[in-house]
Amino acid sequence: MQAQKSAKRDAKKGREKLQRIVAMLTAIEAHQVDPFTLNVDEILQVVREYFPEWKKTEDLTLDAETIHHLASVIKQQSEWVKSRSNSLYTDPFLLEEKINQTGKERMLAIFLHAWRPIVELEQISIRSLIEAMRYWQTLVPLSERWKELAPGEVATGVVSRDELVKQRILGDKIFSEELEQFWQELKTAVEQKGENGKMRYWDFIGADTYERTVERAFFTSFLITYGYATLEIHPLEELMFIKAFDKPQTKARIEQVVSVPIAVTCDDWQKWKRGEME
Of 26, 93, 221, 274, which one's alpha carbon is 20 to 30 angstroms from that of 56? Predict the structure, then answer.
């Protein structure tokens, strides 16, 4: 009687072990667990140990299911090894260990054996010198190739305000009124779009057309000259800001003895339109 109870306990214990093994094998088949974490010898030992205890069909079915899943996992391990072998895969840890165990002299010898430097030799030969001399001897003299052209004379003069109005660079308003209005526009622009009481020079003078941009640059120069505003230039960063004063600064106008030429070309205007102008 006691022997029967002991056999039942062993069968129950074996059944639970096989169920856990089947669950682990199923997880490996679903690629949820590394197949090489499996110890095949231990599983076979469990199967051999409890196989004589199976009397019921359910137990024999569980035993067969265990062997089936085990064979599937072993096949998966084989395919993994075959795939890595075909791709010449080397485990990083094994490679690191092999490098650490290899001496410096051996590593140097392997490197020299595998090194394929690209070498190119360039030198002047007698033949190339002769060809160069023939080339220069057949050239037409510079006096005939480059005929001297007399530089054209450019007349300089003074442009009146009427002429600027005619060319639509200035409007018909009184200049002082236009300058005052432009100053108020600058203060509003700095307040709305600027930072720390200043804004980018090109962001202020830039307009939809190049002609309008030149006109705004013209008025801006008078704002600076008459002390309504000042320029802040950062030469290293190639940045230029304009800052408006609350009141005209006559002192600033007197102290500003350095003229700062600013080119407002059509190319610069196009760069500003594309967002490339600082």
Answer: 26
